[in-house]
Amino acid sequence: MRPLLLAFTLMLLASELQAADGNCAWPDWLAFREAYIDDGRVLDRSGRTPITTSEGQAYSLFFALVANDRDSFDRLLMWTNQNLAAGDIGSQLPSWLWGAKANGQYGIIDSNAAADADLWIAYTLSEAGRLWNSHYYASLGYLMARRIAGEETANIAGLGRLLLPAPSGFITHKSNPSENTYRINPSYTPLHILDYLAKIYPQQPWAEIASTTANLNHMVSTSGFVPDWLLVSKTGVATDKQTSGKGSYEAIRSYLWAGMLADTHPHKQNLITAMAPMLAKTIANGAAPESVDTRDGRSSGHGPVGFMAALLPLMSSSPTYHQQAPKIAAQVALARAEIPRGRGYYDTVLSLFGVGWIEHRYRFALDGTLLPAWENAQCN
Questions:
Q1: Which of 105, 184, 244, 325 falls 20 to 30 Å from 295 in CA-CA distance?
Q2: How far apart are CA 160 and CA 372, in angstroms?
Q3: Residue partners of 91: CB distance under 8 A and separation at least 6
Q4: What is the pLDDT of residues 98-111, one digit of tens each?
Q5: pTM for the complete prediction?
Q6: What span, in angstroms and rounded, lies between the C-alpha atoms of 290 and 276?
Q7: Strand-pair category, 289-293 with 299-302
Q8: Within a 10 A sphere around the Cβ of 304, how many other Cβ atoms?
Q9: What single-letter DSSP state applies at residue 177?
Q10: Which of 44, 74, 116, 127 is catalytic?
Q11: Does the active-site annotation cover 116?
Q12: Where are the alpha helices (DSSP H) in 228-378?
């Protein structure tokens, strides 16, 4: 048995002996765990056959930490390591997509990594190391953060270092590297994670990445809406040709991350102001728009319940719209009850983030440190 796999197995056995803290039970997490996780594998059944993504594994690791559910955490980590990272997540970034292949066998469908998932895993491992006093988790977090910085970032002329969506596939190469164009996803880089990594790994370039990302966030939300994708080069920011400036299922997370920043974060109030048109449109229409043309603000469709849940932290932090948050939270509760069990992966994930935040299951400190309710037994 590989040393890393043996370590996982020993930790899993040890965690099964730990008593659960019933005073801090998180019903929504328990329901998600029952409906979407099969022995450490997170199932997304939105397509014809279930798939598993590194994003799903990453978010679920975070939720397990927020819930103080170390048994589930270890199972999720073991499955991710064995199936997405060739048994050594400390030296190989996990592949982003796993499921049924054309030949009917199950395995990796796309071996490219996904930087947003990698970022959440590195953050969660590092914080699990601190909160659960585990040098092992902390070491894996450090190794992943170093590998992300080395394989999934680029220094863009005139702007600075940014996180790329993956190690490959998102750069239009020119003969002169300063002329390169990069396809960027703004929702991949929560500021609180970048701030945290900059604090605990000062020898890595996270402080520069955090600063560049904060500046980019202000540049892309000038219309009040965030695009799913955009193009960045030394000449500045341009509309992504593939998506024509659309903001939808990717971008909804940008509003979520902004709303969850600590109230004293230097960029939070500016982001709330910049994103106010999204909140205004949501209140006026009675639902978050499913799609927005960020070039002119025209919207179409009503987004699913997860969109409304994702907007809750931003809405509750807004001086203008915070009084609407309880009404929206009630709407979210009613709509979530209609989601078929195990069939609403993304909506449920966004709800765990947004509603969990509203319920004070967790907060982020100014430096990005995770503040779970169970740490001081401040649970609902």
A1: 325
A2: 33
A3: 143, 147
A4: 999 989 899 999 99
A5: 0.93
A6: 17
A7: antiparallel
A8: 20
A9: G
A10: 116
A11: yes
A12: 252-260, 268-274, 276-285, 305-317, 325-336, 345-358
Structure tokens at 212: 């560049």
Q: Residue 262 is encoded by which pair of tokens?
A: 């600590």
347, 340 contact by CB (below 8 A): no
Residue of 362, 245, 354 whose CA lies nearest to 305 = 354
CB 348 within 8 A of CB 56: no
Cα angle at 340 between 334 and 346, to 5 degrees? Answer: 85
pLDDT digits (tens, 9 = 90+) for 172-212: 988 888 889 999 999 999 999 999 999 999 999 999 999 99
Nearest partner of 124 among 376, 372, 377, judged by Cα: 372
- Cα 237 from Cα 17, distance rounded (Å): 52
What's at 357, amino acid-wise? W
CATH topology of domain 1-151: Glycosyltransferase (1.50.10)
What does the alpha-carbon distance between residue 364 and residue 246 come to, in Å, rounded to a whole number?
Answer: 29
Cβ atoms of residues 230 and 240 within 8 Å? yes
**Angle at CA 309, nearest 5°, toward 296 and 304?**
65
Indicate the SS3 state at residue 302: strand
For 227, residues 6+ apart whose C-beta sits below 8 A from its C-beta are 186, 220, 239, 240, 243, 245, 246, 247, 251, 294
H-run or E-run covering 345: helix 345-358
- In this prediction, residue 36 carries a pLDDT of 97
> Quick one: 162 exposed, middle or buried, by C-beta within 10 A (0-12, 13-18, 19+)?
buried
Taking alpha carbons only, the member of 200, 166, 130 closest to residue 54 is 166
SS3 content of the chain, % helix, strand, coil (to 5): 50, 15, 35
Residue 60 CB partners (closer than 8 Å, separation 6+) = 32, 36, 37, 42, 72, 76
Tokens representing residue 289 in the block:
């728009």
